[in-house]
Amino acid sequence: MEHSELFLLLPKYEEVVGQPDYIKSKNIMTEDEILKVIKNIDEICCFIANENYKGYYDADNVYAFLYPVRIAEDCYPNIMTRMRIVLSKWGENWRIQKAQKDTEDYMYYCLPIKDDTLCEMTERKYVSVDASTFLLVNFNAFTCSTEIIRTKRNQNEIELDVRSFDIKSLSKWYEVNRKPQRIFNLNPKHGENGKGAHPSNNGHKVSILMCCKEEAKRLLDKAIGDDSKTLYYFDKQCSQYIEFKRESENIYHGFHLDAEDERRVPRYIKTIIDKLC
Fold it and tell me: Left (φ > 0), alpha (ψ -120 to 50) or beta: where does 262 sit?
């Protein structure tokens, strides 16, 4: 079934050998700097938790990033444990079930590459038989001025999407590349453009959709939530939060929330929405 595959890439410690030449080198990072990276990864994990995705990382790349921590663990208490917990949320080490083949030649902008994340992504995208999407999440690992890089598998050119590690960039990528896409279903009970809603629902309050269905679909593509059953976003044009309820797989209807109902939007969801807006 079509899905998205996200690959994490980190910079390397300057004294580590054996990592690809295109990966940036860093000198010793402070504990706070490393914890900030771990926190950012964890934030992304929470943001994409409801997406239909598979997450991958390279254990060798993580080792190269955390090399100073491994040789001086007393100076970095609990960092290894925190990173292991976050990586378990992110996904799995692609080296356990490697797709790339030693019999194939891989290149990145005319330079041979081997046994790295770009090779793995290239092979997985090349052999994919559905509409699955592939994204490299770049944690300042290498310089990239565009949102697409090109690799080669033998004579076949492959385009790979690249985004920086902030959730705003990932959100915009998912609006277009989510697999499968969300579908908005206009529910007559809630009306459209603030009109036509049923006056009551067995005596219960009926929330109203204040925008048109096309705008609701646009907001649905941005929406987030605790789980995929209920999603939220903020509608700037109406200055109200909008709530989406899942009817069936990938199909949602929606309505706006007044000041009273807005209280049910979780605080941390509001915090993420503020960043996205």
Answer: alpha
Give me the pLDDT at residue 114, please.
96
Q: How large is the C-alpha radius of gyration of the chain?
A: 22
Lowest mean pLDDT among 132-136, 195-199, 255-259, 270-274: 195-199
Beta carbons of 217 and 184 less than 8 angstroms apart: yes
Contact between residue 223 and residue 175 where contact means Cβ atoms under 8 Å apart: no
CB 9 within 8 A of CB 142: yes
For the entire predicted model, the pTM comes to: 0.91
> How high is the pLDDT of residue 77?
67
- Count Cβ neighbours within 10 Å for each residue of 222-257 and write b for 16 or more, e otherwise: bbbbeebebbbbbbeeeebbbbbebeeeeebbbbbb
Nearest in space to 210 (alpha carbons), one of 245, 252, 240: 240
Nearest in space to 41 (alpha carbons), one of 125, 141, 133: 141
What CA–CA distance (Å, rounded) separates 86 from 250?
27
| Domain assignments of the chain as residue spans, ordered by start | 4-177, 183-276
And the tokens for 155? 């004579």
- State in Å, rounded, how far the first CA of the chain is from the last one: 31
* 31-89 pLDDT, tens digit each: 888 999 999 999 999 899 889 999 999 999 999 999 888 766 666 668 888 999 999 99
Neighbours of 145 (CB within 10 A): 4
Cis amide leading into 112 (omega within 30) = no
Residues 6+ apart with CB under 8 A from 78: none
Could you read off the pLDDT of 175-215 as tens digits, one per residue? 999 999 999 999 999 988 988 777 666 656 789 999 999 99
Distances (CA, A) of 53 to 7, 45, 138, 139: 11, 11, 17, 19
